Amino acid sequence: MLSRRRLLTLGAAAGATGLLAAAVPQSSVAARSGASAAFTVPLPVPPVLEPALRTATHDIYRMTLKEADARILPGVTTRVRSFDGQFPGPTIRARRGRPVVVQQVNELGTPVAVHLHGGHVPQASDGHPMDLIKPGGSRTYHYPNDQSAATLWYHDHAHMLESENVYRGLSGLYVLTDELEDLLPLPKGRYDVPLLLRDAKLAGDGALAYDVHDIAARGTTMVNGVSRPYLNVAARKYRFRLVNVSNDRVFAFRLSDGSRFTQIASDGGLLPAPVPMDSIGLWPAERAEIVVDFSSYAPGTQLVLENLAPYPGEDAQIMRFDVGGKVPDPSRVPEQLRPLPQPGKPTVERTFEMTTDMAHDRYLINGKEFDMDRVDIRPRLGVDEAWTVSVPAGNYAMPHTFHTHLAQFRVLERNGKPPAPEESGLKDTVPLVPGETVRLHVRFTTYTGRYIYHCHMMGHSALGMMGQMEITA
Ligand SMILES: [Cu+2]
Questions:
Q1: CA atoms within 13 A on the CB side of 408
Q2: pLDDT tens for residues 337-383?
Q3: Which CATH topology does 348-471 take?
Q4: What is the architecture, at CATH level 2, of domain 42-180?
Q5: What is the pTM of this model?
């Protein structure tokens, strides 16, 4: 069940951003949003990239960043910035303990920096906003894959350019698996489907229209790069990897008949135990994995994935599941998924206040805009830290998402209370509406050097809501 706290959070976000405030699962979004366009396009699944080379110890990939034509709307061509000609980018499937090397060749006219979101990677491979690949250049990133199975994603992070680059298409999926996850009887193979969700504003000719501020005008939603797809599903259980690859869009999903599903993972991988839900919030850069059981539906049933928090006048329908016949289903959701250690007792306290100075279009952390020449905090390796992140009430009623590079953290408290079960696993991105405070447990291991933390509403990070840390041994 969606916790009351989480629901209130979503409701507050909806109100705060001018979305419909009535984010109530029982209400009929379909009725409210009126007539809708048909679901005419089958859901594409981003292709899994083949390694250019497999050595005894590494998988080596090569991608080219270049412009490409996408088909977001049926019969309409949209020019995008792409990884390897794909929109979204190709999927990398990686295995814990087996490092991946990716050479990125930049054939775009803009500098880029490729960041593996949620990844535990050495500094030189983190895609720091100043470590740019200039047009015509290339860079090789090393991903050790020394962390638990998780749904990660890669995207551009070039300072002040990331917002437009990502908006124009520079993101893709990175699925990390491990032995522990393999042993669980969860839906696998073709029954494990990624859903990369985002929005955009399309001009009359199909071109992507980008305005860093005009986030409410992005009325075209996409799943895996197309608007309003359908997916033929068998009457059995599926695992869906929901990834919000939007710049600034807050989603809250439900199934059109209000039926329950089960959340099994958050940003950093499997939760300790499954959480039944009837709706789920997903903020920019967050991931949630859910299992949906279609076995109780008659063949021919159509279920719509709806957004409970559309902007006024927006279509709330995201995609449709068309249920087919029953097939054997050996999968199940076990009562225990993956135990998580109790976080250590923090010995360092830090505070991060996220504010906006609208008069000057400045987005600040602790009163400062990002400065690449300034180090804001200096965490030590292996030290348990508590980070208190807040968005002051009344701060232009602007929600934010706090994300740190390099570490998966744990939410210790939200507004002074223990986090909801679905927020109790490994996280790297956490939403806040004005008036909220979260207390996080953060601990850096293995890698030293300069990394960043920032708001993952990309319009905000591009306008300065970012800080720099230097991690030392
Ligand atoms: Cu923000």
A1: 27
A2: 999 999 999 999 999 999 998 888 899 999 999 999 999 999 999 99
A3: Immunoglobulin-like (2.60.40)
A4: Sandwich (2.60)
A5: 0.93
